[in-house]
Design brief:
Layout lengths: L1 H9 L8 H25 L7 H13 L21 H7 L2 E2 L12 E2 L11 H7 L12 H10 L46 H10 L31 H5 L9 E5 L5 H7 L4 E5 L7 H8 L2 E3 L14 E7 L8 H14 E15 H13 L4 E9 L9 E9 L7
Parallel strand pairs: 3-4, 3-6, 4-5, 6-7
Antiparallel strand pairs: 1-2, 7-9, 8-9
Helix pairs in contact: 3-4
Length: 405
């Protein structure tokens, strides 16, 4: 382009150029184009495996979408090469060894990672900085903070997490159901308490709020959950199971299930329940696993990792309430509807809100999903004082056997 412009600038309207001069400029133009082609072929080849190509692939295939997200902490002009090398290595499009795959409709695979991860470059850099094939940093709090901010799923890492130095194996079934695990089964550095006895006692000794503060005391309130009736808001577990034909409630999910007691109750009745839980100042996932049921470390924001129309029952207690943004809650309820099989049960256990919200917001929202009401009980929530006008909803809802629209 520049050669052509220079050529035109030098042309005179009054004097014709000799043929030799025209041939010279033509030769110069061809040489320049050939040189450009040579440079681009050697330095930007798609078959190159150098680090710059890996980064470029990651930018084009993995991080471009994330950079379109509006966020006050995100500098839109920031170059993606500022991201940690291990993050780019993981998120880069990987060529399939056997070429095109009809299931994927591609010859590459892009490992999934939460797009908001790139919104928090400082935390992400700390999380993805480690010695490959070595030990992972002791950074459970950092990882959970990233996950709760929306960096979900977290990127995989090529390092080994810390394990308890003198690990003790769990108790055998069924002893493990109602026995406190060994302190040596947990890495305690992320928590205020450094042993299970501290967690058991914290309801009596610790001021301030902690999630599920009394859950670790298996001889306390956990021992009677879903078996005794305190108010009409408490549904006994056997009463819920009796709604369906015997043996047809077999598999399900407990969302925000604390220390897994709901799953234990169901396991005692030959029902397999997966429990989602976070480690909010306590080793909830370790505790659930030690009891002999399955923990799943995901936040309430993540799409449920189950296929449509597959689960017999979904249960949630307390975690679903008016602290969740209404639109997000609407998506959550529809996701629960999605994974339940036709005829499956959604047990909404002690959902709470402020009085006016019940009829104005939450009852219409729940009704909009399409569930059939099997049982619906409303009552006051008085543990923080009647002046707050808080209300509970306990509901047993059924997904229709046939679409009703």
């Amino acid at each position: 382009m520049h050669v052509v412009q220079y050529h035109k600038h030098m042309e005179s309207p009054h004097k014709p150029k000799p043929l030799s001069t025209s041939l010279f400029y033509l030769f110069l133009l061809l040489s320049t184009n050939l040189l450009t082609l040579f440079i681009s072929t050697n330095f930007y080849s798609s078959s190159s495996l150098c680090a710059s190509d890996t980064a470029a692939t990651a930018i084009s295939a993995s991080t471009t979408t994330a950079h379109t997200v509006t966020h006050p902490n995100l500098d839109d002009s920031r170059n993606t090469l500022d991201l940690p090398p291990e993050f780019l290595a993981f998120t880069s499009a990987q060529k399939l060894p056997f070429g095109f795959n009809t299931n994927m409709d591609s010859d590459h695979i892009i490992p999934p990672v939460g797009s908001p991860c790139t919104l928090f470059p400082n935390e992400l850099r700390r999380y993805m900085t480690y010695k490959v094939n070595g030990s992972c940093p002791d950074d459970e709090l950092l990882a959970q903070k990233l996950l709760l901010k929306g960096c979900e799923p977290l990127p995989r890492r090529r390092c080994r997490p810390a394990a308890p130095p003198e690990y003790v194996e769990p108790y055998p079934l069924p002893t493990s159901f109602w026995t406190t695990p060994s302190d040596k089964s947990v890495v305690w550095t992320a928590y205020t308490c450094k042993n299970y006895q501290c967690l058991i006692d914290r309801m009596k000794t610790q001021k301030g709020f902690d999630d599920c503060k009394d859950c670790f005391d298996l001889l306390g309130r956990e021992k009677v959950r879903w078996t005794t009736v305190g108010t009409n808001l408490d549904f006994p577990i056997d009463e819920v199971l009796a709604v369906k034909k015997p043996g047809t409630i077999r598999i399900g999910l407990d969302i925000g299930g604390g220390v897994g007691t709901f799953a234990i109750r169901m396991k005692e009745r030959n029902v397999t329940i997966i429990t989602t839980s976070m480690n909010l100042n306590g080793p909830f996932n370790n505790f659930i696993a030690a009891r002999g049921v399955i923990p799943m470390y995901i936040s309430i924001s993540q799409r449920l990792p189950f296929f449509d129309n597959t689960l017999d029952i979904v249960h949630s207690m307390h975690v679903m309430s008016n602290w969740i943004p209404t639109t997000m809650l609407h998506f959550m309820f529809f996701d629960i509807y999605r994974v339940l099989r036709p005829g499956g049960l959604f047990w909404l256990d002690h959902f709470f809100c402020v009085g006016d919200q019940l009829e104005d917001v939450y009852a219409p929202l729940i009704n909009s999903i399409g569930f059939k009401r099997v049982k619906w009980v409303v009552g006051p929530k008085l543990d923080r004082g009647a002046e707050l006008r808080e209300m509970y909803i306990s509901a047993l809802l059924e997904k229709p056997l046939k679409n009703s629209w």
